[in-house]
Amino acid sequence: MLIDCDRCAARGPACPECVVSALFDAPAHVAGLRDEECRAIEAFERAGIAVEVLEAPPPPVPLRLRVRGRSVA
Length: 73
What we know:
Blueprint: H1 19-25, H2 28-31, H3 35-46, E1 65-67, E2 70-72
């Protein structure tokens, strides 16, 4: 795939919402998207939907409960 930003009709004010900008500005670990994820982003872009690539949220912290001095899992 060849992406030529110089020929983009939406260049300028639309750049911050562009999927290409999101991929270039993404942290290194996000740039390693799987093929199916890249195809999904491309499909959204072709449909005119702005895509923002976000970092995965941190895993949930397990809760430890104590009932009358005893730990409960």
